[in-house]
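Bug #77: duplicate submission created two jobs. Keeping one. Sequence:
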Amino acid sequence: MPTAGFDFAVLRRALEHGDAATLVALYAEDAEMTIVDRNRPPSAPLRLLGRPAIAGFWRDVCARETTHAVAEEVVGADRIAFVEHCAYPDGCNVVSAMTLDVREGRIARHLTVQAWDEVIGSAG
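Kept job's structure:
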C-alpha cells in the first residue's frame, strides 16, 4: 500500500540490492536520520541532518559486502516501520528496527535502533 506517494516496494528493493542512489532519492532535502547502537548509545546517537549527510551514510553501507532482507513492515499513512536483517561474510548478523516518518512522499525522519553479533574482527 503506497503511503502519501511513497512506494515501500522501491525502498525494499533498494535496501536488498544495495542501491544507495535510489535510497538517497527517497529522502527529503532536510531529512534527519538518527542511529542508536552499541557504539552510539541513546545519550549520544549518530545524527545525520540533510540529504547530503544521509547520502554519505548510504554510500558507505551499500559498499559493504553484506546481504540485506527487509521484513515485518507496517506501512501507515505517514509512518513506516520495518526490520532489516543483514549478514556479513564473517558470520556477523545485524538486526535493525527502523521507523520512518513520511512527508509529501519522502522520508523526513528516520530512526534506526540496531544490534549485531560480536564477531572478532567484525567491522560492525
